[in-house]
Specification:
The protein is α+β, with helices and mostly antiparallel strands. Helix content is 23%, strand content 34%. The radius of gyration is 15 Å and the shape is elongated.
Amino acid sequence: MKIHRTTYRVIYGDTDAMGVVYNSNYLRLFEIGRNEFFRDLGLPYRGIEGRGLHLPVSETFCKFVSPARYDDLLEIDTRIDPKIRAGLKFDYQIFKEDGNVLIAKGYTKHAFVNSEGRVVRPPDYVAWLIGS
């Protein structure tokens, strides 16, 4: 199963008054990992949308394990859960740059939706992702 690793340095604007990455920003980090995963496969999300397909988030989960702080270099590991067939489920783990300290883990689930907002089966050009 393919795992994509994206590196991200925490900016000051990601943190709260305590100097810790604010909780909702982890969903942004998940999105960064997901977008770079697609890009690495040669299928940038812009190209998916250009074909009239959207992948709205239908469910999220994030477990905070250890704090990330300003200027930390993070590694976002992203993979697809092959057990999900109707849509896509991405699993994420975020580590400090050495890969030894787990910061957070979670997932996002996505439906395939056409330009009219109707749920559709995954087209062939993305269906192979589910089995990868």
